[in-house]
Amino acid sequence: MSASKTDRQTDREREKERGEMEERGMEAELVSIPATPKGLSTPETSVTPRGTVSTSARVKASWTPTGLTSAMVTPRLLSPSGSMGTPMKKVVVSLRGYLEEVGHLTRLNPQDAWLPITESRNGNAHYAAFHNLNAGIGFQALVLPVAFAFLGWSWGIISLMIAYLWQLYTLWILVNLHEAVPGRRYNRYVELAQAAFGEKLGVWLALFPTVYLSAGTATALILVGGETMKLFFQIVCGTLCTSNPLTTVEWYLVFTSLCIVLSQLPNLNSIAGLSLIGAITALTYTTMAWVLSVSQARPASISYEPLRSSTFTASTFSILNSLGIIAFAFRGHNLALEIQATMPSTFKHPAHVPMWRGAKVAYLLIAMCLFPVAIGGFWAYGNLMPAGGMLSALYAFHIHDIPRGLLATTFLLVVFNCLSSFQIYSMPVFDSFEAGYTSRTNRPCSIWVRSGFRIFYGFISFFIGVAFPFLSSIAGLLGGLTLPVTFAYPCFMWVLIKKPQRFSFNWYLNWSLGILGIAFSLAFSAGGVWSMINSGLKLKFFKPN
Predict the structure, then answer these.
(1) pTM of the predicted model as reported, rounded to 2 decimal places
(2) CA torsion, ordered 182, 183, 189, 192, to nearest 10 deg
(3) Burial class for 265, CB neighbours closer than 10 Å (0-12, 13-18, 19+)
């Protein structure tokens, strides 16, 4: 009897010692967990001075909230019959709720609160859809039938389909790499490139094509918008306004002034309404362009045979330039991370979920615009398609067949879309200007400094457009030079950051697509340069009769 009592007492003592050991181990783990930051402006961040990391924020690279809660918070420890004491149980329950709400404990640079891209983080899936639509479709869609004139039916449709699926895959990569490293959000394309390729190499590889794409597109939009405003004025006024009309350069200046006025909106989220207008107008005028074209009688001398030059070399470069036009039709990836940076992100509600939801809707609508424009435009005009694209064809072949009201409405929608697209493509440039200013002065830009930067950028784009008025017709060269941003770099960055198993299917797929994208970039750029030289740098986006 005494022996059994002794055994029970020994068991109780062992259980008590085991509980004390577990409690001491739990307290040791809790020491390494950073406390809730005071003065935290958003529930997802812990702010530290620029370029420094506090001692409490120096966590192990392998640490994640998921791993922490799964290791600490178990049913046994939180059950009423568990060996952990009630006070410690309350601490762990509260800690788990905090981690689930705070998420990755992202350390943000306080300077981000002063910059246009990251100043506001209240975006959602609707904003993502508006911005992606506005950035992903525009005037470049109207020149797709020009590419089909050199590629023909089969290769034109195949190339367009491959490019669409390829860029959709790389967009998915960028969305998922936005928070690839716990505790860090890559808010800009260049930041992600630096994380993948290194600080210096990332800047060299990504800065030029992204800035060239943003600034080059903004300049091309000034040219297209100014030319379209001129045509709209001619259609509306007819013979009544021919006494002293504005010159083309003066129409460029009018359009630039409107862009500068709209560019005073402070940040990326504040232009969501403009992006919605740009998306609606783009969907409308691309649909009107191909519907009006296929509803009219086709030219008598129409042919669907691919255009061929007198020499094999000339034909090859023409085909490469056409493929570059198709590549340029899928722009906007340089803005994907910036758009996602405007959204809040926590462990329970990560930013990639609403971003991908909005992007899927946007690119479904983009496909519903691009494919009908390319196929319908080529069916309506064949290889007689003017170099300026669909609007040039409408003006040249059907100026007397289509009611002036419909034609004028189409051109006006193009103007509205160009005004909206200018804002979203210029925002990364505004962000770079203000980042340089705030880094030097350690204070946010005043309204006068911000306005000065945007006025300066608008007029610089205007002067470049006046000096190089053929810029809007070199879509092949633009597509070639900026192709790595959309088709190549995301694949390389996935391999370097996610590190898939060597020689696996994922590893082979991304390396192959990346290398192929770089090769296409070089080939399409050569085709674009040849096209510029061959045309004597005299191309215009519109060539009305």
Answers:
(1) 0.78
(2) -60
(3) middle
